[in-house]
Amino acid sequence: LAVSVFQDEHIASKKVARRIADIITSKQEKGENAVLGLATGATPVEVYYELARLHKEEGLSFKNVITFNLDEYYPMNPGAKQSYVRFMDEQLFNHIDIPRENIHIPDGTLKKEEIANYCLEYEKKITEVGGLDLQILGIGRTGHIGFNEPGSAPNSGTRLVTLDDLTRRDASRDFGGKENVPTKAITMGIGTIFKAKEIILMAWSKKKAPIIRKAVEGEISSNVPATFLQLSDNVEFILDEDAASELT
Ligand code: F6R
């Protein structure tokens, strides 16, 4: 696990966007697809903004990019204001030239009995296109990555999970009250994330400092799922000074 600290989230986000652009262009030169694992939430917003700018102003093309998002609330209508489908369209996909059929986001409209099979298919699709070249992550205050809450196993796959109370509280503003936040989500597993060739976890602000300290320096345990990232050499934490402020 490598940790890089930047002065602020603007500089850090540009750095991550540049890394993504480099992967895309080096794959283009080889005539291959770039397979990206994407996250939602506040953390990656500036990365997506910068990628859209690189497309518009510097001609970066996403024609060879295939994406898999980490998670979606369940149940969730893709047209709803809080859906991750809508988030990704507004923050990134509507502003770039990615082919629509290359976009994958867990489906929040499935019937309960369809979920298990759908999750297996999601994993299979990732494998079939050659696996994730890069997975980007945020981190929740519970230590979740994706929606792998405390108790998640290191070898877990894509599945239906129950959201932690703190996660639902943190989402309550988007939903106009915690009681409106779905209790469940479909998420890639920790095992799914681990298969990525490269993983970048980003965190900004003092609010994330305590969980960043636990994730980087704490005992490896399913109580703080992000601690499993300590086990991999392909992981980089990209932090602003505030999020890094409690590291010893
Ligand atoms: C989002 C996701 C979550 C968020 C995390 C942090 O797809 O998987 O793990 O990355 O909850 O959220 P923000 O960035 O809003 O602080």
UniProtKB/TrEMBL annotation:
Residue intervals of the Glucosamine/galactosamine-6-phosphate isomerase domain: 11-230
Signal peptide positions on this chain: none
The protein's name in its UniProt record: Glucosamine-6-phosphate deaminase
Protein's organism: Christiangramia gaetbulicola
